[in-house]
Backbone:
């Protein structure tokens, strides 16, 4: 099908091609700019173009590529960095130099010479849809190859095989390929969803101890600029106890991406001692890259996440930042001249967000394995104002809310998680910590919160009369609260302290609270606080 | 490529700097057009939007005198380009790249589109080499590194102008930073200057010994040139950096004027306004400028960006500083309180931050104990500032001796470390001062 361009406005191009379907992919002009159908009318079709439309002319040819935006999924994903449309950025760099040029990104997403396939099934055996027929070793991982349909194996490869040839043939004539295509906006199927009960250990004391995350859960952390969102995201990406990490830099800084890539290449996964890059897939669509691809980037990332989840892995998806995605949505919506909702965002912002976040979860896969996809999403509220639409829409669906506080950040308290405003709905997870780490976990948690609360109440008094004018017991609470803040809640992302396993977390808070109890006892027996602290 | 130029006189509407043209058969997004006014004069314009046969054109330069009749638009089949050559060094241009220094326009080596292509994130090298600005508050505590973008957040009446002038005069590569073979270069972009500011900066440029290129847009110049000038500046900077191997520092002042121009044009286009009337795409638009700073793997040269933003109503949550802060790698915030106490530069250390500082300081970059000195100063000063609110309530006499010493430290820090007037300090001098302040404080305590 061929047609031509009849209008251009920013990233939105009007074409006279008929017979297209919603979300079909379209190639535009001599450069072959990629686009996606977003609106159909009788005489014309509106296409959202993923690249810079500068230089595009009226009358240039348009052709339909049929399928909606889809990913090529298979061995080679891990350790690679893609843009929002799954174009490999290293490949593009080799092909066209250090700058991204519009309409020339033709590097194949995954390119393997050959790979070694190990079968799990023998000819004659039954296989379910979504069940693994075998695996390819990819770094430290077994990259399972799943059957797309149920059937009986007729032939199956063993050892070296070409990436393009099927690895298995079924008796009904269908084949199992090494690679599969999956449209990004369509959630991958599973048997059933399970309640998130297992903790996701992040290595961040404040999160693990006070606001624990669950595998398969969702967490958002909003914060104004300078509150350390990106550093926190990256620390979690480095240290969290996940099998696979998908990191999507959505409309953020290029230099920070460069810093992260360089760091990840040299660091090791603290849980397996394998290079960190081997478990990571990066999707980078920085703030100056085309806005429509930014909108697609989170779907690209979540589809990759679901793909690994279906193999029975625990996947962690980190997006920085969801606000940039929402802004891209707003920009596209406004170029389509849609009726705006709050602050110019389209009215479907909340439902799109909810649908995206609903793709997280712990599932029983079609093949019967258990896998999970956890989402940790940063939000950049304009002016640090949490009443804005994106934060509010997220709050309705998220399971955990970590509020990053500007005042804490100014005092260089990092991570700047506000211990009163934040919450976690994953209370089941606390019991798991209690079972697995220590029976004291819940009690210590309560004690820690009480002291922080006491400090908050006493602070006003302290500001007026000064510490010296207060009673010893109150002064002790203030001193201990300060220790909790500085020695426990603060965590330096640039030193070894950046990662704290649960046992260490517990030992550290245990020590501070033991000191508190002991000192309280000594005060009770008539000693004076200055003597205890001084001596 | 079209063979013949084609011209149209079918103008259907003129709205501010925008012009609507009917019945156009061929036009490209971003294509440059030449507009002949009824009085015979010519201006340039750019294609903004294409709809069936209606073309929306924005006019660069003054649109006064445009008419629906007797005006002709000629399509040129090229996009907006900047002439590039090393001869640009030492020259001053206006927002349309016309020489302002009375000399003839240089002969370009080649032309380059001004919108710039995004740097592939995989091709970026990590910024980590120290640039010495000569200001203790920046070099010591909010260190600037090659390839960084670090804005100055100022307010009306604060001396951002004098700061910019001092940085233009004093900035150079750090002693330990391997200087790219081409050397250090400054690109200065001034937007919406009053005449008073204009003469101030022209005088400054005469004193700058670093090779420089300047783009000066006056408040009375056309609004669209305000959108163009930074793009010219950055295109020239990229050329000098990545093709000629120079380390380029781009100083752009004042980005608030840029954003207001963006809003003006957006309103004329009848686009949906976002916060405070600024267009919804302002974040992407600012990013397309700021993100052009950086270094490339395997190539010498760097583009470092120091934009100045005047915060309207001294409000850091205003969309302009807010969006800027989300894109840039830190910020330097100026304080009216310090300025009133005649401290120059009046940089408030507490809300200021350089995100890329960690990599750019210490052994082999600046001085081995830089981090300890910086952390010490920050910690003590933050404590001293906290105590000032207490002092306001109970008075100095009501405070314990230790707290009084912290108060003294905070004042000494502001007067001896942050304040430096006209003097240029090397990083060694900056850190010496810092160490002395800390020693004095700790000496008193023992």
Residues:
């Amino acid at each position: 099908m061929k047609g031509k361009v009849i209008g251009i406005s920013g990233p939105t191009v009007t074409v006279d091609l008929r017979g297209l379907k919603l979300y079909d992919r379209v190639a535009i002009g001599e450069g072959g700019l990629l686009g996606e159908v977003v609106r159909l009318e009788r005489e014309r079709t509106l296409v959202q173009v993923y690249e810079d439309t500068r230089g595009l002319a009226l009358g240039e040819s348009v052709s339909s590529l049929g399928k909606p935006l889809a990913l090529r999924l298979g061995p080679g994903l891990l350790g690679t960095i893609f843009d929002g449309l799954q174009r490999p950025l290293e490949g593009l760099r080799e092909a066209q130099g250090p700058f991204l040029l519009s309409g020339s990104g033709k590097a194949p997403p995954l390119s393997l010479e050959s790979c070694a396939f190990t079968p799990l099934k023998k000819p004659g055996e039954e296989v379910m849809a979504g069940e693994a027929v075998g695996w390819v070793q990819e770094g430290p991982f077994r990259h399972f190859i799943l059957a797309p349909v149920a059937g009986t194996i007729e032939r199956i490869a063993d050892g070296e095989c070409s990436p393009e040839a099927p690895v298995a043939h079924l008796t009904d004539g269908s084949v199992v390929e090494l690679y599969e295509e999956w449209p990004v906006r369509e959630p991958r199927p599973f048997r059933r969803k399970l309640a998130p009960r297992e903790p996701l250990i992040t290595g961040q004391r404040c999160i693990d101890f006070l606001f624990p995350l669950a595998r398969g859960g969702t967490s958002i952390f909003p914060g104004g600029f300078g509150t350390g969102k990106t550093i926190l995201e990256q620390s979690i990406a480095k240290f969290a106890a996940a099998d696979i990490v998908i990191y999507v830099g959505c409309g953020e800084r290029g230099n920070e991406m460069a810093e992260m890539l360089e760091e990840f290449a040299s660091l090791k996964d603290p849980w397996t001692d394998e290079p960190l890059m081997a478990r990571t897939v990066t999707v980078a669509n920085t703030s100056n890259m085309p806005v429509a691809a930014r909108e697609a980037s989170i779907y690209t990332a979540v589809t990759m996440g679901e793909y690994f989840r279906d193999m029975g892995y625990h996947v962690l998806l980190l997006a920085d930042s969801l606000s940039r995605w929402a802004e891209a949505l707003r920009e596209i919506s406004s170029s389509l001249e849609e009726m705006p909702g709050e602050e110019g965002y389209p009215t479907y912002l909340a439902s799109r967000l909810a649908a995206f976040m609903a793709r997280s979860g712990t599932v029983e896969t079609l093949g019967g394995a258990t896998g999970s996809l956890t989402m940790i999403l940063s939000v950049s509220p304009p002016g640090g104002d949490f009443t804005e639409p994106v934060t509010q829409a997220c709050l309705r669906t998220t399971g955990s809310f970590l509020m990053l506080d500007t005042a804490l950040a100014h005092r260089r308290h990092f991570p700047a998680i506000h211990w009163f405003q934040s919450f976690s709905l994953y209370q089941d997870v606390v019991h798991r910590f209690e079972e697995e780490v220590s029976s004291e976990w819940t009690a210590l948690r309560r004690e820690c919160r009480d002291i922080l609360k006491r400090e908050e109440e006493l602070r006003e008094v302290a500001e007026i009369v000064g510490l010296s004018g207060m009673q010893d017991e109150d002064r002790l609470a203030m001193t201990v609260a300060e220790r909790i803040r500085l020695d426990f809640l603060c965590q330096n992302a640039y030193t070894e302290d950046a990662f704290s396993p649960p046992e260490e977390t517990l030992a550290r808070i245990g020590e501070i609270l033991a000191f508190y109890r002991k000192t309280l006892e000594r005060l009770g027996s008539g000693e004076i606080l200055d003597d205890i602290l001084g001596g | 490529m079209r063979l013949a130029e084609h011209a149209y006189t079918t103008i259907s509407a003129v709205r501010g700097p925008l012009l609507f043209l009917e019945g156009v058969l061929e036009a490209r997004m971003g294509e440059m057009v030449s507009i002949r006014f009824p009085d015979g004069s010519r201006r340039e314009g750019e294609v903004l939007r294409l709809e069936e046969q209606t073309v929306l054109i924005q006019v660069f330069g003054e649109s006064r005198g445009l008419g629906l009749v007797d005006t002709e638009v000629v399509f040129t089949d090229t996009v907006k380009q900047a002439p590039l050559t090393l001869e640009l060094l030492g020259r001053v241009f206006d927002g349309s790249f016309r020489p302002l220094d009375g000399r003839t326009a240089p002969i370009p080596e080649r032309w380059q589109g001004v919108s710039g292509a995004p740097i592939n994130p995989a091709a970026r090298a990590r910024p980590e080499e120290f640039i010495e600005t000569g200001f203790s508050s920046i070099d010591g505590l909010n260190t600037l590194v090659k390839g960084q973008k670090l804005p100055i957040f100022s307010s009306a009446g604060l001396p951002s102008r004098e700061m910019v002038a001092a940085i233009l005069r004093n900035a150079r590569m750090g002693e330990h930073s391997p200087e790219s073979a081409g050397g250090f270069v400054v690109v200065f972009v001034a937007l919406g200057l009053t005449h008073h500011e204009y003469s101030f900066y022209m005088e400054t440029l005469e004193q700058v010994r670093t090779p420089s290129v300047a783009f000066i847009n006056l408040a009375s110049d056309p609004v669209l040139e305000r959108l163009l000038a930074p793009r010219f500046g950055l295109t020239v900077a990229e050329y000098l950096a990545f093709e000629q191997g120079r380390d380029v520092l781009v100083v752009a002042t004042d980005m608030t004027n840029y954003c207001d121009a963006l809003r003006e044009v957006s309103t004329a286009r009848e686009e949906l306004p976002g916060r405070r009337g600024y267009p919804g795409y302002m974040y992407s638009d600012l990013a397309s400028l700021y993100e052009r700073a950086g270094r490339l793997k395997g190539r010498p040269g760097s583009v470092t960006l120091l934009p100045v933003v005047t915060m309207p109503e001294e409000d850091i949550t205003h969309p302009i500083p807010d969006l800027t802060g989300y894109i840039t790698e830190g910020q330097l915030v100026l304080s009216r309180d310090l300025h009133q106490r005649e401290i120059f530069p009046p940089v408030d250390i507490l809300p200021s931050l350089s995100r890329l500082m960690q990599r750019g300081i210490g052994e082999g970059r600046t001085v081995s104990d830089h981090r300890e000195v910086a952390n010490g100063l920050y910690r003590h000063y933050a404590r001293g500032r906290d105590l000032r609110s207490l002092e306001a309530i109970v008075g100095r006499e009501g405070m314990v001796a230790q707290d009084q010493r912290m108060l003294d430290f905070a004042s000494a820090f502001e007067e001896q470390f942050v304040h430096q007037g006209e003097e240029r300090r090397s990083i060694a001098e900056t850190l010496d001062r810092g160490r002395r302040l800390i020693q004095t404080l700790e000496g008193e305590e023992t």
Observations:
- Residues 211 and 311 of chain B are 30 Å apart (CA to CA).
